[in-house]
Amino acid sequence: xxxxxxxxxxxxxxxxxxxxxxxxxxxxxxxxxxxxxxxxxxxxxxxxxxxxxxxxxxxxxxxxxxxxxxxxxxxxxxxxxxxxxxxxxxxxxxxxxxxxxxxxxxxxxxxxxxxxxxxxxxxxxxxxxxxxxxxxxxxxxxxxxxxxxxxxxxxxxxxxxxxxxxxxxxxxxxxxxxxxxx
Length: 182
Description:
The protein is α+β, with helices and mostly antiparallel strands. It has 6 helices and 6 strands; from the N terminus they run H-E-H-E-H-E-E-H-H-E-E-H. The chain has helices at 2-16, 38-49, 61-68, 102-118, 127-131, 158-180, and strands at residues 23-25, 57-58, 75-82, 91-97, 134-138, 141-146. Helix 2 (38-49) packs across helix 6.
């Protein structure tokens, strides 16, 4: 069964253009808007997900730099949220990067994501959220999503929990994409 699920994830990654690290840069020559405030995008995601959207504390520029390695020189605009409760990892961060720093922002998010995956001191309920985190780029906007909300009833089935988190992350990214398509 595990092989079937892994094969399904591999097919999904290949068909969506994701790399192994769940990063994706601008899909298929799509033209993207460049005038949407990052906060508006995050609010659209929160509205779409409703009670399943748990991040509720705004990130400061200092936090973005200290935790993620993204300095103010690397972006025009950003908006990010995490939960107030540190035992939870649900996060949404949208960075409108300076064009010359887009790859730097992507790399910073990838470095953070890999560090979180390797951290063995995570609460068990957060592991599926971390494993399912994604980084996507739409034009100058680089998005880091690590969502999952309540995984009640899935604590004993990590594969289903990962699938549920991945679906929520995809839903969040679909909202961002819809808002940015020209």
